[in-house]
Amino acid sequence: MRVLQLAKRSVTLLAVLSLALAGCSGDSGPDVPFNPAGTSADLEAVNAAYGSSAFVSFSSLSYLFDGVFTGSPLISSSVAAIDLKARGAGGMRAGAIRSAKRLASILSAGRNKTWSASSAGVPISASIPAEVSGKTYEYSGGTYVPTDRPGAPSNGVRFLLYAVDPVTFQPVEPLVETGYVDITDLSGGNTQSVRLEVVSGDITYVEYTVAANTTTGTITVIGFVSDGSHQANLNISATVSANGLTLAYGVVVPQRDVSIALRLTATDFDVESGTIDIVISMSGPNGTVSMTGQFTATGATLTVRTGGATFATITVTGTGEPLITGADGQPITDEDAAALLAIFDLTSQAFGSFDQLLTPVSFFLDAAA
Q: Residue 284: pLDDT above 90?
């Protein structure tokens, strides 16, 4: 379930992270034996959905969108410090705190919004300044600037996309326009809702809707990412409360009959005694793998089950690398370890992944009226 490569610029990592963005389905059950090579291949195959040049351009440039409204990119204040590779308890807690603050900000701002109707009777959020609504923006000198080009949604904005250098992830010079991103505000009543679409050559490669319900304190993300052949169907739900945060998300890839469901429940995570409970399950033609456990201030222990039986234990101490041992306490094969580690990494990268999904649409969600 990986999402936008703002901090580390890794398309492959982004794709793997995004696996955690949809509901689990198609459980293969205990009768299908665990195939570590096949499981690793399934994880790698999902990356294909995020391999299009349109997605690379989008994930490389989306951190600049917020600067159109605020004067400076959002990454400068909240995303640059994200370490998507952090596996330690400290990194997990930092991610939970960051996500909780972002959710609280969005939901708090939403409670103060007012709504007006356009001449066509369509609700328009007061968070969209009249001078930018319906505008198309192009890249120039490291930022986005308005143009007179038509095509943008009347109650949103359009950002043009460009070919990017595969090393620097910056637009190549001279600029080569490859597509666009439309962000449309669908808000009304107690719900703030934004749709984002990435289009190149008349093909939609990314589409998802983010909705923030100020009554329930929940933000959802539903949509898909595709390379034209492989499609990852995304579904995420995040709920913040006075003392905790719950993330439930995953992805379903019909072409592989693979699904991953991940649930993280952080309680009192801003104090040393806080914990983060983890439940993750990956199901498909190569078996079902589940992991359950808890992160504390000092580390984590997860129990791994395959085929309905305990298969291994994953232990993390401090900032060290995870230690994976078999059910009998003995080492497992390198192939088994690689597959389990790839699934485990989804848990440590989840909060950063969620933040990155919200980044391109943050202004529309948390700008007060």
A: yes
- Pair 136, 150: CB distance under 8 Å: yes
Q: How far, in Å, CA of 325 to CA of 61, rounded?
A: 41
Tokens of 23: 């509901």
CA–CA dist 297, 293 (Å, integer):
14
Confidence of residue 269 (pLDDT cuts 50, 70, 90): low
The burial class, CB within 10 Å (0-12 / 13-18 / 19+), for 204 is middle
Separation CA 110–CA 191 (nearest Å): 8
DSSP of 318-343, one letter per residue?
TTSPPEEEETTSS---HHHHHHHHHH
For 195-244, give the DSSP string. EEEEEETTEEEEEEEEEEETTTTEEEEEEEEE-SS-EEEEEEEEEE-SSE
Q: What is the pLDDT of residues 2-45, one digit of tens each?
A: 443 433 334 444 444 444 443 344 444 456 899 999 999 998 87
Closest alpha carbon to 98 in 363, 366, 361, 356? 356
Q: Are 321 and 341 in contact (CB under 8 A)?
A: no
User: Is the preceding peptide bond at 331 cis, omega within 30 degrees of 0?
Assistant: no
What pLDDT, on the 0 to 100 scale, is given for residue 139? 96
Cα 310-311-316 angle, rounded to 5 deg: 100
Helix (H, G, I), strand (E, B) or coil at 23: coil
Two structure tokens written together for 154: 């009347």
203 strand-pairing partners: 200
End-to-end CA distance of the chain: 32
Q: How many CA atoms lie within 13 A of 74 on its CB side?
A: 25
